[in-house]
Amino acid sequence: MPHQVIHDPTASTSVLRGHKIGVSWDPSGLLLNMSIPSLVGGISLRPYDLPGATVFAAAYGLLVPLLVYRLFDARWRSIVFIQATIFAIERPIMFSLRASAAVKNSEAPGLTKYFQAAFALGFLGLAHLVLNLARPVIVKATRGGPASGNDYLAVDQPRRRYWYRRGGDFLTVAHFVGIAFGIIGTVSLGSANETGPNHTHQVDRYVSCGIGLLLSGSVILALIWASITLPRIDHRAVRFLLVLSTLLTIPAIYRFVVMRHTTPDIHALTHQALNTGADKAAFYAVHLVPEWTVIFLVAIFNTKDICQMDFLGDRMWDETPKERERLEEWKRKRAAKKSGLELSTKPPHFTLIP
């Protein structure tokens, strides 16, 4: 039996079995269209977004000098740390623009798209950051040598190291796919009479969010599995990375919950449009606080030392004894050249294990 739709000519929405749904009504009364996917965080409103955006602009702004200062210290400096610093520099700019829009109680469509893209891609980028921190921790634990807290020698596991790295490569590719879907899903705001595009944008947003959750969840599972099966794993690094990854699952789950909402008007002061005080409070507390906490922890704790990584993280191939020997030889030559000796620094050629 088809759903019974009751149209109220005085309202902007229709009612489906007693529940309001976001649909627009065709003048002929014969056609229903999917309404606009609600904006995550809603539109910028003075009572809610001015204090919220101001607080987060200041919170990130306080971290920026510390992060930039640490970049000049070789003990902290790494590609991952640079990535975190860039993220922290962008956030005060974004929240300042949101606060400015809230003061005017008006948000230009271009700003709306920028805000939605920034919120969709922020936790996704941080999940990839944590992946790049976890990779050297797990890979290092597969190498032979003294086991942590034990007297015996751990057996070198090049095959396992190979597959851990291929798993990391797969998740990196997934991360870029998630970025693409996130951009596509936020590039257009749509309108209430565009059923197809609205549905497509909704699906794109869910795919991007799902990939972000996949990244964090995969890192959590890999860390737990490695801590159980690899004797040489650094448990301090595992605990630190588990905290970061768990924090980043919170925004992803929040987005899955709220993205189901649609509205015929993104400016409506309704729960369906995610523009009520409770919706705003949940957005800032559940979506944005975990992201800021991750950057705060990266700024306070030396991730390069905790994860025992070099500037590039885990980038060199050492999956066989021969490859490790070539790598060590190249490192010795590079160190010798820095000392002023005239030695060749041609990088070693590494081959993948099929």
TrEMBL record:
Q: Specify the species.
A: Mycena sanguinolenta
Record keywords, A-Z? Membrane, Transmembrane, Transmembrane helix
Please report the name of this protein according to its UniProt entry.
Uncharacterized protein
Q: Which residues cross the membrane?
A: 50-69, 76-94, 114-134, 170-193, 205-228, 240-261, 281-301
Q: Which residues form a coiled coil?
A: none
> Which portions of the sequence form the region Disordered?
333-354
Answer yes or no on keyword Membrane. yes
